[in-house]
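note to self — DONT lose this again. spent like an hour looking for the file last time. sequence + predicted structure for the chain T wanted, 136 res
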Amino acid sequence: MVNLILASHGDLSKGILNSTMMITGDLHKNVETFSLYPGENPLDYANELKNRIMRTKDTWIIIADIQGGSVHTALLQLTTLDNVIVFSGMNLNLVLGIMLDDYEDLSEDHLRTIIDEARAGITCKKQMEVQIEDEF
């Protein structure tokens, strides 16, 4: 089984899960969120999670909000376990790409493809050009 954890500062992880539920329906069964709030220590959650992970043979995929942030840094230590993968840069494209994956191929190349596809969904347009066709 594959477990997915969305982890963020504040409620971003809950919002992303809510949005994915609108799109994917009940594919979110093995998805949970972690939200860090002021005064909390993400290492406390990481240690609790490590104990859970060590009791299973499941694969655990963690998507953190920001690379190098306290949430990401605390959860990154879990990659010392063979069954943990940690992503950073949480966005809806990335979460959907992982949730809709069949999890049969968790190779580095496949995971890189998921990241590349999520990145491809990030665009910036400064000025939209509108073409008006003449009707004759």
